[in-house]
Amino acid sequence: MDFSKLKKRNEAMDLLLENWAPRPETEFVELDDAEGYVLAENQYAAFSIPVVRASGMDGIAVRYDDFSEGIPDTSGWIEGREYVRADTGDDFDDAYDTVIPIERVTILEQGGLSLDADVKIEKGMHVLGKGSMLWEGQLLAEKGTRLQGRHLAALASGGVCQVPVIRKPRVGFIPTGSELIPAGTTPRRGQNIDSNSILAKSMLREMGAEPICYPIVKDRQDELSQALDKALSECDIVIINAGSSKGKEDFNTRLLRSKGKLLCHGVAAVPGRPMGVAVIEGKAVINIPGPSMAAFYGLDWMIRGIVCRWLGIPLPKRPVVQAELLEDLPAPPFLERLVFIELSEKDGTYFAKSHERGEKGRRHAMSSDGIFVSSLGKGGLKKGEIIEVEWLD
Amino acid sequence: MDFSKLKKRNEAMDLLLENWAPRPETEFVELDDAEGYVLAENQYAAFSIPVVRASGMDGIAVRYDDFSEGIPDTSGWIEGREYVRADTGDDFDDAYDTVIPIERVTILEQGGLSLDADVKIEKGMHVLGKGSMLWEGQLLAEKGTRLQGRHLAALASGGVCQVPVIRKPRVGFIPTGSELIPAGTTPRRGQNIDSNSILAKSMLREMGAEPICYPIVKDRQDELSQALDKALSECDIVIINAGSSKGKEDFNTRLLRSKGKLLCHGVAAVPGRPMGVAVIEGKAVINIPGPSMAAFYGLDWMIRGIVCRWLGIPLPKRPVVQAELLEDLPAPPFLERLVFIELSEKDGTYFAKSHERGEKGRRHAMSSDGIFVSSLGKGGLKKGEIIEVEWLD
Question: Locate the MoaB/Mog domain: which residues (chains A, B) (predicted)?
């Protein structure tokens, strides 16, 4: 096999985007339902807070004029006449214009006040004017924001109730393979659990798409064709899982070719090298290889890349850590290799071990701590080298 | 005010944990519902995959004995007699023991096979034995894992359907303040929107708790007392929001003292300094100050810390970036200061601007890019200094 003919990951993505474009639409959702959506338009505050004014401290509101020539005798003052109580955030009558912190005031038993001798009074002090906390027209959240709780709080505080968002792209996931059985059944000889549907549903949700997971399709040309037609009619983007390599039952590549334009078959990335990228009826159709790590990787870079472009957001960042390799890490120079990593830590130094499939005594690769992707052209790494590991959630 | 008497954040947490302990319980949830829960026990695979064997390549399965003395004449071979098709993951009959990749095989028109002259045959090659992909008893996911899609896929692949998880702690959130009105109404003079309930609901869910958000309580002693009693009867942990400082209406601190043990009133962290920490009827009750940034900070460090301890998981990591300060950043040396940061980037260098409340022309602080916490004892920072900013999701 001539690996130099394989598309690099970014080339495969560019090729898709030359032949297919996301078609984001705006829809309105209730603020309560808006978490995880991407904001379609800048949102601005509809009113100012304070509406008129508010105290910036717990204290008493007074007239500055009473203090213009020094601290007066306040022992006979009466609440509601010379002063009012004004705690943080409280509005108070227009008659008063200045707030003295409660810590500097003693309220006397017979009414009246005693102020600390050294209290300094400035006109308007500790008074928050109209709009000083939030002003009408202030930018609450920017177009392109993936809405989290804090953004919803900002929108609510400025009076936004109906939120214009990018409709989530509907991403269909078709698991294929005669050997597959649904989770919850015990595999017999030759069978395997379809765990990729569970993975895809969760990952698609997390990346901001609406997953539509279809039933398992056997390796039969007619069933695959029908399943793809159904998904094309219901989804914006379709993932066919497995059947991407060259075996007898690998109808899927032929299917993509027969129904539309197969842009690319094979990427310079393992696991998942025989990925197929096609456009059919104006929709992106990606054939992701079946093994679970290949499915993870394909979802993580290709599908996440497509979904982020659809939504108009950058790829999310993951926390990273520098870690020392505990063993040699073989990697072909002509392929990027995704490696699942187990991390350990001693005295503030992190150590990384790759997670080879089938190695006895280790936990399941999908439960690893993080991932590392080897660079194209670099090849294998040696024990003791420092690699950058992305923590997985 | 003597700031040296304030508890540091870790001291406030330690004090709580000396007087109160999480009481995690295990419950079982369906795999479909398990995302976001914390696994209560190690989970192991119930069976092996392959159950017997599987082909590791797309190819044909043959008997090694036919190749023990070199490559035989295969032109008259018949499928089902001398060989069978065996694609990746396929089981095949016990009569065969070795797989030849399909790329090295040509299937002749009249049946029969032509093998590449240089093909190397080794006994058992490209055959995945029983348990080579997953073995009975393999650790699928570890106790203490916050379950994401990839863990659910691992559990499913090994036959786990009912998942033992830590019950999510029920965290009650009581918004208090006579000035508060619910989101969706327009504030009149002296009113403000309760946006903290929206913030808390989202943040509590994200940290792995079950939020119970109560209606707004006016600043009336009897109503506050009733609301707290209700929350104590329904929740594991209770947050009273606002009413934590020393104003006339700040019943809440007094309330905590009267109903239980007030462990701490005031922490060396702003915003949110007048936080109250109490234990009442064996439950943790935290009084978080009302301003939105104080609420965010209090939820982010104190409540997240408590919830993570309840669940037995480490604090989650955030991506970080080194950024150059574009302006002086005042911070008192005797308090940790949480600063909301706007980041910009030029030629790979990040620049940070703090997000002061009320500064005109800036977006809402809650929509910032990240946060920075100044160190105790360090005080203000100068323009040009490099700070470490945590990206917010």
Answer: 172-310
